[in-house]
């Protein structure tokens, strides 16, 4: 049975997100260790656009829990300085549009732009109809966009009723699949 991480609220507080904020990112200060285990550790940074109604530490904590979940891509260390493999940035719709070019996000989608997972703050606030659980949708969008940063391309629903691959464009449609926020949903949590 799929479940959100134990410390992920099922119904995060809803907030009003401005269409346009400052266009400038602030790196969330602090570091978080990777989960225990084997394998390489990926260094990453979390950024939040100035003027958004979110606390950077809360966003960074949810990103870190998602990336280091046993059902996730691997082991990640959050840092606030030095070299990183990728960044995860919470962005207003206007900044998302600019950051994601030449992709036309319509102020609605998130993207990977070559160095940064650009998470659209409106989608972060509202989710999508096909995900009844906003916390699970947030896990999906982080997993999906970071998946692009790790070199994974889009996939489609393998068969009706199956769990959607995390690299399926679940924000647009489930294509007959069920929602799934994880790259490895069968792994023990």
Description:
By secondary structure, the protein is α/β, with parallel strands linked by helices. Helices cover 22% and strands 15% of the residues. It is built from 4 helices and 6 strands; from the N terminus they run ββαββαββαα. It has helices at residues 56-67, 93-99, 121-126, 134-149, and strands at residues 25-27, 41-49, 75-78, 86-91, 111-112, 116-120. Strands 1, 2, 3, 4, 5 and 6 form a 6-stranded mixed sheet that branches. A hairpin with a 3-residue loop joins β5 and β6 (116-120). α1 packs across α4 (134-149). It is globular and about 40 Å long. The termini are close together. Residues 1-9 have low confidence and may be disordered.
Q: Which key terms come to mind for this protein?
A:
single chain, 189 residues, alpha/beta, Collagenase (Catalytic Domain), six-stranded mixed sheet, 6 strands, 22% helix, disordered N terminus
What does the secondary structure layout of this molecule look like, with pairings?
Elements (H helix, E strand, L loop, with lengths): L24 E3 L13 E9 L6 H12 L7 E4 L7 E6 L1 H7 L11 E2 L3 E5 H6 L7 H16 L40
Parallel strand pairs: 2-3, 2-4, 4-6
Antiparallel strand pairs: 1-2, 5-6
Helix pairs in contact: 1-4
